[in-house]
Amino acid sequence: MFLHQHPYEPFIQKDTKKLIVGTLPPPRFSTGDLLEKDVDFCYGSYYNSLWMFIDKIHNLNLRFDNSQEAINQRKTFLRENKIGICDIVESAEREKIDASDLGMQNIKLRDVVGYLKQYTHIETILFTGGNSKNGPEYFFRRHLKAYNLKLELVNNEVPRIHKFSLCLSEQRKASKQVRTIKTVSLTSGSGAANISISRLPLYKQLKAKNPDFNTFDFRVMQYSEFF
């Protein structure tokens, strides 16, 4: 069994308002066998398009390589926009060394709720995937159960939006002082999600109007509302 350990600590600032939550980067980020266009940072895989969407939305002219400058560009964007990253999986075991979420076994989750209590300005969680098995929302729902919390549906259209209430501190439970946190389940940036996108009525409608419109454009349109 291959122990797939998350290679990066959560990237969260005191004033972070939005938190990106995924699962694990591909195993090569844990073993150090990066590709030429990979960036040694969260969501650094050249084949995971999150930073390409962000680059397109904000015209950042990001570098896609192993340089320190590429890392610094991403950290600067996150700090300036009060966005953090805290993937929910700390480690997992795999029989096959690949990036499949379904291939994860003996999964150890991070205490994301603990981070939410520590960083009190966070008001939105952005899942980079939905509620399919071993996806970030799937694990987060399981994680919430340990705190006797659950997600409440706000909007069932893609990207689905939920909310939950979190006590500001254990001492304040009696006074009902809580904060409401919104979650947004963005369409995954993986190629496997392209099929599900192509089936969406909105995508079909936009594709009919513009034959050049593709799944990358759809994600850019979706992500632009939240980034």
Q: What is the topology?
A:
Layout: E1 2-5, E2 18-21, H1 28-31, H2 50-58, H3 68-80, E3 83-85, E4 89-94, E5 105-109, H4 112-118, E6 124-127, H5 136-145, E7 152-155, E8 160-167, E9 178-185, H6 194-198, H7 201-209, H8 215-224
Parallel strand pairs: 2-3, 2-6, 6-9
Antiparallel strand pairs: 1-4, 4-5, 7-8, 8-9
Helix pairs in contact: 2-8
Any overview of this molecule?
There is one protein chain. By secondary structure, the protein is an alpha/beta fold. 30% of the residues lie in helices and 20% in strands. The protein contains eight helices and nine strands. The protein has helices at residues 28-31, 50-58, 68-80, 112-118, 136-145, 194-198, 201-209, 215-224, and strands spanning 2-5, 18-21, 83-85, 89-94, 105-109, 124-127, 152-155, 160-167, 178-185. Strands 3-2-6-9-8-7 form a six-stranded mixed sheet. The protein has a three-stranded antiparallel sheet with strand order 1-4-5, covered by helices on one side. A hairpin with a 4-residue loop joins strand 7 (152-155) and strand 8 (160-167). Helix 2 (50-58) crosses helix 8 (215-224). It is globular, with a radius of gyration of 18 Å. The relative contact order is 0.16.
Beta content comes to 15-25%
Side-by-side strand order of the widest sheet: 3-2-6-9-8-7
Query: Could you tell me the mean pLDDT?
Result: 92
What is the CA–CA distance across the termini?
37 Å
Number of H/I helices: 8
Give the H and E element order.
EEHHHEEEHEHEEEHHH
Q: Judging from the principal axes of the Cα atoms, what is the shape?
A: globular
Report on the biggest sheet.
6 strands, mixed
**For the CA atoms, what is the radius of gyration?**
18 Å
Structural class: alpha/beta
Instruction: Tell how many strands the DSSP assignment holds.
Output: 9
Low-pLDDT residue intervals, each spanning 5 or more residues: none
